[in-house]
Inverse folding.
């Protein structure tokens, strides 16, 4: 499950903190999740919490351009459901 999801453009965003993503097992899980989403055509972007705090305009710009790129293609043939 990504941290943010734009279904109309097939874009997912992941906030990759050291605490939750850089342990050996955590990194492996994060990479596997990215690969699985990418295999289904999802455009996955990654940001660190620090970058979100220190470069918010760049993060927003990256998200906007990725969402725009995703919107230029047909909708993905996937369905996403909220976690329980």
């Amino acid at each position: 499950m990504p941290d943010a999801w734009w279904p109309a453009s097939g874009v997912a965003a992941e906030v990759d903190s050291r605490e939750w993503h850089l342990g050996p097992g955590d990194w492996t899980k994060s990479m596997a999740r990215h690969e699985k989403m990418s295999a289904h055509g999802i455009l996955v972007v990654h940001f660190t919490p620090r970058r979100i705090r220190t470069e918010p305009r760049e993060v927003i710009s990256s998200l906007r351009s990725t969402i725009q790129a995703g919107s230029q293609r047909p909708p993905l043939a996937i369905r996403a459901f909220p976690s329980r």
